[in-house]
């Protein structure tokens, strides 16, 4: 089997960490990006290595272009040619209505969730696309079901940023489809991770789970399975589309 090298942004916790673990178990060499929580990244790397996998941790703020450029060079140097990018880093802020938002908050949300996703995709395409001398690859963007539902009275700004991610997924997929690169999105519903605490409501999943047709929140591992499928050759004719992991919402 060819060597498979994955970079996952925001890979130190939550959905990203579950994806990094599953990818390593399936034979990927994994670069785990984080921004602040070095301890979480180091613990994950240690546990992947203890299980016989290959992984490195790379600090970078995806909202900062020079950080992203440096991160990709580090991956080149330590793991070799990138074959998979998972654009997973994403943030939301305290629940608020649109009539309470300000431009500084919008700038923070869009810098991480949208600009970060674009710049990481750019660096990946420069390495993967046959147009640039690459041998192909796969990109998976983490969107959210909020892109469809709008997240009223919680975070319409976050939902709109994920709408932008969806549009980018469709456009980029078509741009590079004939260059050996597939691009797809995964849209989770409510998943048990720490992201809800940053919205000010750590117990949010349990509050809203009855609105989910399956009547439960999702686990990070269930999202990771969908991501790994899209990255795999089993999805070889799948590009420019989305897998919703929502319990039917
Ligand atoms: P999480 O538990 O809050 O973890 C966020 C991860 O992103 C951490 O590893 C964090 O690093 C990293 N990160 C944050 N800002 C970053 C930046 N500027 N640069 C690099 N890394 C950064 O999040 P999650 O719930 O697993 O969510 C993962 C993705 O799924 C996000 O895109 C989110 O929008 C999406 N999603 C989640 C849910 C859900 O219910 N959980 C639902 C729909 C969509 P540190 O550890 O260093 O802070």
Keywords:
249 residues; binds NADP nicotinamide-adenine-dinucleotide phosphate; 9 helices; Sugar dehydrogenase; Sc_DH/Rdtase_CS; seven-stranded parallel beta sheet; oxidoreductase; oxidoreductase activity
Detailed description of the structure:
Keywords: Oxidoreductase. The structure is a single chain. The protein is of the alpha/beta class. It has a single domain, classed as NAD(P)-binding Rossmann-like Domain (Rossmann fold), CATH 3.40.50. Helix content is 45%, strand content 15%. The chain has a seven-stranded parallel sheet with strand order 3-2-1-4-5-6-7, with helices on both faces. Strand 4 (84-87), helix 4 (103-128) and strand 5 (137-142) form a beta-alpha-beta unit. The longest helix is centred in the middle third of the chain and has 26 residues, at 103-128. The chain starts with a strand and ends with a strand.
Secondary structure elements and pairings:
Elements: E1 5-8, H1 14-25, E2 29-34, H2 38-50, E3 54-59, H3 65-79, E4 84-87, H4 103-128, E5 137-142, H5 146-149, H6 156-176, E6 181-188, H7 195-198, H8 204-208, H9 220-231, E7 242-245
Parallel strand pairs: 1-2, 1-4, 2-3, 4-5, 5-6, 6-7
The structure holds NADP nicotinamide-adenine-dinucleotide phosphate.
GO molecular function: oxidoreductase activity
Protein name: Sugar dehydrogenase
Keywords: Oxidoreductase
Helix content: 40-55%
Give the N-terminus to C-terminus distance in angstroms. 37 Å
CATH superfamily: NAD(P)-binding Rossmann-like Domain
Bound molecules: NADP nicotinamide-adenine-dinucleotide phosphate
Instruction: Find the structural class using helix and strand composition.
Output: alpha/beta
Helix-strand string: EHEHEHEHEHHEHHHE
* CATH fold annotation: Rossmann fold
Rg estimate, integer Å: 17 Å
Gross geometry: globular
Mean pLDDT across the residues is 98
The overall strand count is 7
Q: Under the CATH scheme, which architecture would be assigned? A: 3-Layer(aba) Sandwich
Whole-number tally of structural domains: 1
CATH class: Alpha Beta
Q: Runs with pLDDT <50, length 5+?
A: none
- The total of helices stands at 9
Major β-sheet profile: 7 strands, parallel
Content of β-strand: 15-25%
Strand order, sheet with most strands: 3-2-1-4-5-6-7
Keywords: Oxidoreductase
Protein name: Sugar dehydrogenase
InterPro entries: NAD(P)-bd_dom_sf, Sc_DH/Rdtase_CS, SDR_fam
GO molecular function: oxidoreductase activity
